[in-house]
Write a structure and sequence with these properties.
- The protein is α+β, with helices and mostly antiparallel strands.
- It has 3 domains: 24-146, ntegrin, alpha v. Chain A, domain 4 (Immunoglobulin-like, Sandwich), CATH 2.60.40.1530; 152-174 and 214-370, Rossmann fold; 177-212, no CATH class.
- The protein contains 8 helices and 21 strands.
- The protein has helices spanning 3-24, 152-155, 159-162, 196-202, 237-257, 285-297, 306-313, 331-342, and strands spanning 29-35, 39-41, 45-54, 60-70, 73-75, 80-83, 86-95, 99-109, 113-117, 119-125, 132-137, 141-146, 156-158, 177-184, 206-212, 218-222, 261-265, 277-278, 321-326, 346-351, 366-370.
- A 7-stranded mixed β-sheet has the order 13-21-20-19-16-17-18, sandwiched between helices.
- α5 packs antiparallel against α6 (285-297).
- The longest helix is centred in the N-terminal third of the chain and has 22 residues, at 3-24.
Length: 380
């Protein structure tokens, strides 16, 4: 066989190889990616599972998968690159004929929100590298990341303490249980319920009998504006993220105390047509779970300025313990606080910016500032 014949056969074989892979490469092949959980908290490590299934006899010599996800999902090791808000991750697969291959990525959730992996590109080619093929895949991987609640009893400092005044009561919300007499001690009672006077008088252990005050409710109000003159895009996003975590902390408090609570905010909820967040009054873990979903969906955007939101959403609010979380207090907010007081609400103010002017806070309103754990400095 002469050289020309060998060359013709070689080029023919290459042409057939290119033709076969060009037509068959992505046929009977599927790609899927999914998270091992649907929800997580900030700081949790989750897994992204990629699966490539080749249902034909023709092997796949190499397949590069390019995933575009959020920068707030951190992949273990130096496996990705970040540009602005997008993280680019690339991996390479090999599959034989009629074979399935799985790969698991450890991922750390570093920020609250909803994260979708909707943009995935598959790139492949023939074994000899003469041709390159690509196709897009509609991935459906999604995960909801809840904020970590801030312990409000430990992290909120009364403004009066910062000014050197004596603090009589550090509790933000009064105990909703009232003493309604005494009764005999049972093994299920905690020691702090023992009534010392009644015990001494009767000669046996007596405990306080408590009734629940059903009229106690909590309303958490979050102002998504970070400064007074702000159009619709939030300037100080870090401060608002702290406010969201504080709101989650009050959900924890209300749930643990067993009192009904709700959440109101001028923030825009992802995927909803409502102009702001407004929940009904309810109690228990199911209410907490629902409102944590709301916090995860809160966008760094709002349609309604806080003063207009207050006039629309708070006009019928009455007989509730209102916690207003805001970065500043202007004349409009001060007027809204007075309106809430006039509607027989108790109002407490949590200010996110230590440098905020508090001179406009109405008299008789308890003001709290956020203190970073381990430091004496606030978050502005």
């Amino acid at each position: 066989m002469d050289a020309i014949t060998v060359a013709i056969l070689l080029f023919s074989a290459i042409a057939i190889e290119i033709l076969v892979y060009s037509k068959m490469y992505f046929k009977k092949m599927s790609y899927n990616c999914e998270f091992n959980v649907h929800t997580a908290k900030v700081g949790d490590e989750v897994e992204l599972i990629e699966t490539v299934v080749n249902r034909k006899r023709l092997p796949i010599p190499w397949l590069r998968v390019s995933i575009f996800s959020s920068r707030w999902l951190e992949y273990a090791g130096d496996l990705s690159s970040v540009v602005d808000e997008t993280r680019y991750v690339s991996s390479v697969f090999y599959t034989g004929g009629n074979q399935k291959v799985k790969r698991t990525w450890p991922i750390t959730c570093t920020k609250r929100g909803i994260f979708d992996l909707s943009n995935v590109t598959l790139i492949g080619g023939d074994p000899l590298g003469f041709t390159t093929l690509s196709t897009g895949v509609d991935a459906t991987a999604s995960i909801m990341v809840y904020p970590i609640p801030i312990d409000v009893e430990e992290s909120l400092v009364p403004l009066s303490l910062m000014l050197g005044e004596t603090i009589v009561n550090r509790w933000i919300i009064d105990d909703p249980f009232l003493i309604a007499g005494v009764r005999d001690y049972t093994p299920s009672d905690t020691m702090n319920r023992i009534h010392m006077g009644a015990t001494a008088k009767t000669g046996r252990l007596m405990v306080k009998k408590c009734d629940f005050t059903s009229s106690v409710t909590m309303t958490i109000i979050l102002n998504m504006q970070s400064i007074e003159r702000e159009l619709d895009r939030i300037v100080d996003k870090n401060s608002i993220e702290v406010g969201i975590r504080i709101a989650a902390g009050f959900f924890d408090m209300a749930c643990n105390m067993g009192i009904p609570f709700r959440f109101l905010s001028n923030g825009k909820i992802r995927g909803e047509h409502s102009r702001y967040a407004y929940s009904e009054l309810n109690a228990g873990p199911s209410q907490q779970e629902m409102l944590l979903v709301t916090l995860a969906k809160l966008e760094m955007f709002y349609d309604v300025h806080f003063d207009k939101f207050c006039s629309e959403a708070l006009s019928d609010l009455a007989d509730s313990e209102c916690i207003m979380i805001t970065s500043f207090v202007d004349d409009a907010i001060a007027d809204s606080i007075r309106e809430l007081k006039a509607q027989k609400n108790s109002v407490k103010l949590v200010i996110l910016d230590y440098a905020a002017d508090t001179s406009k806070v109405p008299e008789g309103i308890s003001v709290y500032l956020y203190k970073k754990q381990g430091t004496k400095e606030g978050v502005g």
